[in-house]
Write a structure and sequence with these properties.
152 residues; alpha/beta; Ribosomal Protein L13p, Chain: A; two-stranded antiparallel sheet; 5 helices; 27% helix
C-alpha cells in the first residue's frame, strides 16, 4: 500500500556543502537531489519535501576540460534579435553563484514546484553565510559519490 506524506508530516533539514574544488555538474546533481527530496524514502514527485542546502565557497568551483572558456549560456531579452550569450568565465567574474544556480535549475523539472524547490538553495561565494543558526549538517562532496546521498 502506498503511503502519501501530508504537509504537516514533512520536516526539512539543513545541509551545508563546501564547493571549493568541486566540479559544477557533479555538485549540481547532488544538490538537486537533496532539494527535490529524492534522498528520502518518502519521495513523491508532485510534493515539495526536500531539504535546504547552503553552498559556500562557490567562487572556487571548477569545470572539467575547457568548458570554463568554451561553454555558452544563452538568454533572450524579449526584443527582436535580443539573444545574448555569455561564458562561465565572464559570469564567474561578476556573479559566481549564478553558474551553480543555473546548473541546478536545469536539473529540476519545470513549473511552479521547481521554483519553490529552487528557493531552498542558498549559494554564497565566500566561506561565511547567515544560516549558522539552523545548525546545518556538513556534507563533504569529496567523500560523497552520487549514489549514497544523505538519507533520513
Amino acid at each position: 500500500m502506498t503511503k502519501f506524506v501530508k504537509k504537516d508530516e514533512i520536516n526539512s533539514r539543513w545541509f551545508e556543502i563546501d564547493a571549493s574544488g568541486a566540479v559544477v555538474g557533479r555538485l549540481a546533481t547532488i544538490v538537486s537531489k537533496i532539494i527535490r527530496g529524492k534522498n528520502k524514502t518518502t519521495f513523491t514527485p508532485h510534493m515539495d519535501h526536500g531539504d535546504f542546502v547552503v553552498v559556500k565557497n562557490v567562487d572556487q568551483i571548477k569545470f572539467t576540460g575547457n568548458k570554463f572558456q568554451n561553454k555558452k549560456y544563452f538568454r533572450h531579452t524579449g526584443h527582436p534579435g535580443g539573444i545574448k550569450e555569455t561564458t562561465p568565465e565572464k559570469m564567474h567574474s561578476s556573479k559566481p553563484e549564478e553558474v551553480l544556480k543555473l546548473a541546478v535549475k536545469r536539473m529540476l523539472p519545470g513549473g511552479a514546484l521547481a521554483k519553490k524547490q529552487l528557493s531552498k538553495l542558498k549559494i554564497y561565494p565566500g566561506a561565511s553565510h547567515p544560516h549558522e543558526a539552523q545548525n546545518p549538517e556538513i556534507i563533504e562532496v569529496s567523500k560523497l559519490n552520487n549514489k549514497n546521498i544523505v538519507r533520513n
